[in-house]
Amino acid sequence: MRLCNFVNGQWSKPLHGQYRNIVNPATGEALWDVPQSSREDLNLAVAAAKSSFSSWRLVPAPKRGEMLFRVGQMLLERKAELAAMMTQEMGKVLLEAEGDVQEGIDMAFYMAGEGRRSFGQTTPSELPNKFSMTIRDPIGVAGIITPWNFPMAIPTWKIFPAIVMGNTVVFKPASETPRLAYELVKILEEAGVPGGVVNLVFGSGSEIGEALIRHPDVALISFTGSNETGRHVAKVTGGELKRTSLELGGKNAIIVMDDADLDLAIDGIIWSAFGTTGQRCTACSRLIVQEGIYDTLRERLKERMEKLTLGSGLDKRTDVGPLINKQAVEKVKKYIKIGTDEGARLEMGGTVPQDPALAAGNFFLPTLFTDVSMEMRIAQEEIFGPVLSMIKVKSLQEAIEANNRVTYGLSSSLFTRNVNQAFEAIRDLATGLIYINAGTTGAEIHLPFGGTRGTGNGHRESGTAALDFFSEWKAIYVDYSGRLQRAQIDD
Length: 491
Description:
Layout: E1 5-7, E2 10-12, E3 19-23, E4 30-35, H1 39-56, H2 61-77, H3 79-90, H4 94-114, E5 121-124, E6 130-137, E7 141-145, H5 153-164, E8 168-172, H6 178-190, E9 198-200, H7 205-214, E10 220-224, H8 227-239, E11 243-247, E12 252-256, H9 262-274, E13 284-290, H10 294-306, H11 326-342, E14 345-348, E15 367-370, E16 387-393, H12 396-404, E17 408-409, E18 411-415, H13 419-428, E19 433-436, E20 452-453, H14 465-469, E21 472-479
Parallel strand pairs: 7-8, 7-10, 8-9, 10-11, 12-13, 12-18, 13-16, 15-16, 18-19
Antiparallel strand pairs: 1-2, 3-4, 5-6, 6-21, 14-15, 17-20
């Protein structure tokens, strides 16, 4: 099967006819071919989005929302089918893939409701016989660039608030996971979103992504990806004064105090560190443990890790699927060497599995380092794989210091039965997401999602906070006094 771009309401081949084959990361099986588009393809998509903006912005917002209600219903009806496709091309286990699609469903219904909300404010004027209010306005063409690890959830976080606010979209998904982008745009088309409102262009970051962030007719960029690429996007778009949202990496920690429920903590650690094979921006890669339970937690965690089953995500017995590609495997291997060279103790894993049945896939054993200090690279740098580093601390204050001593600030977690400690952590943990007695993952779409410091540039996705990025505020003054009134001058 060869996928197509979607430009101005038409499915089309790339102008230069180049494609790339997508393979199943668990088996190496060839799946489908994705276009490797050119800048000419991208220019056509931007032109279509620009042309459609003038009419789409005038469609009543409740009507835009009704289209998203239909999208949500169609996603719900196709949830199992879409999840299976996702597991094939990305590798995450089927249960997680279903959760990924469910986030898209939830976002469709939530943002559909914003078509009838998107509230402004009315406020008293300081002058008599004068009315004041605020309203939201769409901005223009939104460039959407998404990663491979959540190929349904993250595109919907961006596209749905963009279009319900009246913007048009040019969507460049990750090259590794094109099928879910293709299916999502097909559903938007079937739901009645007019041609040109959402345009899909497949291609590389260096070609299509670069052209998108530099295009003069693209008014705003929403990007999720690596810190390195995000810095480049910020540099380019900052020079053009484009509105830009960056959602970048994480080096997230779970803190476990001596009084914690260890059964619950271990469940949260296993899910956060090894779910999606550690390939989540919210994955737990640091385990900060109070010294009184450090040894007990280490041994119990190793027992649970030994029971994890690797394999194809389509097999319901599988706990941990493959990494996305061979390059990811090599990156994890590099960090295993870094950790051992730094003096950390490799307790478990640290290599690819020896099972011949897994040889064709990109598998890596769940890995545990102990005796890790806060300064080690494995405790500072994002690995994006199934690698967990244990750090010993004496107190909650030391744990919070360890949590905050990284360049990222996305997600953090604390396991404790002490309510005083919980609220101290809520106050002092320097991350955009904080979980008490839960792991570092599991964001709900009606709350803002995003982080501090190296994790992003201050914007948030999901919830009503997403609407602020995809709209401009207008302040409106209506003077019905019949005379000129000058604010701050006339009493």
